[in-house]
Amino acid sequence: MKIKSLGSNKTEIELKDLRLLVSYSTPVALIRYPGGALKTNEFHSVTTSKHINQWLNEHGHNPKLTPCQDQLFFDTFLDDNT
């Protein structure tokens, strides 16, 4: 597992076949390789929305076309995959 700070209150966690975006202390989006991207369906803040959109764009995913997933999925994701 690699943890990389992407800026103020924005962190990326890299696991074997995926990357997870954490905004503040909340996991909010991921990209699986192979596969695709998912983002939370919950609105947290304007800043977190910007973090998600920028991060997805940087990795070649259109935020408007990225499927949403319940926040609970992201909240339990690290527990299930580490």
Short description:
This protein is of the alpha+beta class and 82 residues long. It has two helices and six strands. The protein has helices at residues 46-58, 71-81, and strands spanning 2-7, 10-14, 18-23, 26-32, 37-40, 68-69.
Describe what you observe in this structure.
The chain has one domain. A six-stranded mixed β-sheet has the order 1-2-3-4-5-6, with helices on both faces. The protein is of the alpha+beta class and 82 residues long. Helices cover 29% and strands 37% of the residues. It is globular, with a radius of gyration of 11 Å. The chain has two helices and six strands. The protein has helices spanning 46-58, 71-81; strands at 2-7, 10-14, 18-23, 26-32, 37-40, 68-69.
Strand order of the largest sheet: 1-2-3-4-5-6
Q: Classify the secondary structure makeup into a structural class.
A: alpha+beta
Continuous helix count: 2
In angstroms, what separates the terminal alpha carbons? 9 Å
* Unreliably modeled segments: none
Q: So what's the overall shape? A: globular
The whole-number mean of residue pLDDT values reads 93
What's the domain count? 1
Q: Give the % helix.
A: 25-40%
Please compute the radius of gyration using only Cα atoms: 11 Å
Order of helices and strands: EEEEEHEH
Strand content: 35-45%
The main pleated sheet reads as:
6 strands, mixed
Q: How many individual β-strands?
A: 6
Jot down its keywords.
82 residues, alpha+beta, six-stranded mixed β-sheet
Task: List the SSEs and their pairings.
Elements: E1 2-7, E2 10-14, E3 18-23, E4 26-32, E5 37-40, H1 46-58, E6 68-69, H2 71-81
Parallel strand pairs: 5-6
Antiparallel strand pairs: 1-2, 2-3, 3-4, 4-5
